[in-house]
Amino acid sequence: MSLLNNVMDHALDDGYAEASARRAAEGGGLPRTLRAKLGLAAGLALAAVVVTLGAAQTQISAPVVAKEREELIDRIQAETTAVDGLAEDIERLRREVGERQRAALEQHGGDQSGLVSLLSGATEVTGPGIRLVVDDAKATDRGGGGPREGSGFSDTGRVRDRDMQRVVNGLWQSGAEAVAINGQRLTALSAIRAAGDAILVDNRPLVPPYTVLAVGDGKRLATRFQDSADGRYLHALEENFGIRSSVSAQDRVTLPAAPSLIVRTAQPRTTGTGTGDGQGAADTGKGTS
Question: Which residues does 195 contact at the CB level (< 8 Å), separation at least 6?
Answer without folding.
Answer: 205
